[in-house]
Amino acid sequence: MSRHVFLTGPPGIGKTTLIQKVTQALKSSDVPIDGFYTEEVKEGGRRRGFDVVTLSGKRGPLSRVSSDSSTSRRECRVGQYVVDVVSFEQLVLPVLRNVNQGSDAAKKICVIDEIGKMELFSQAFIQAVRQMLAGSGTVVLGTIPIPKGKPLDLVEEIRSRKDVEVFTDLQEPEMKWHHDF
């Protein structure tokens, strides 16, 4: 049986919504859980970027639409978005380290929504995710993007792991996994 569960699919299919529902159900059952999800930031009905929100409620910018047409070599960009790697790491890395600590006897669940292009600008994040997947004390519930364009190394590693189940159709009957999670 797979230990880690990842959801994938095109934007807007409901990956984050499903993750949030499962997270609430697990929290209400007193299951030890922590992690983060990403959320759209809109202004005047237009997407301005994305925030990272920890399960404890802390929020910070992941990316924003660039207001400047000139680009710095050091800027991390995905399309029109400039990624705030420092803010992302300040919020997410302490959460991942905290979940990964402790005894293996006390299994924990870590929500990682998502492992995508923006998040992968952080080498420290990549290392933390690899450590978490390799450890025995944490179960990861996460999201990854559908394959498109150049493959993302960490995402492909996750897809090929024997201890990972990847669900692509969030409407499938077997999506009832979350009741047993």
From TrEMBL:
It comes from the Eukaryota. This is Nucleoside-triphosphatase, cancer-related. Residues 1-170 form the AAA+ ATPase domain. GO terms for molecular function: ATP binding; ribonucleoside triphosphate phosphatase activity. Pfam families: NTPase_1. The keyword Hydrolase applies. The keyword Zinc does not apply. Keywords: ATP-binding, Hydrolase, Nucleotide-binding. InterPro entries: AAA+_ATPase, Nuc-triphosphatase_THEP1, P-loop_NTPase.
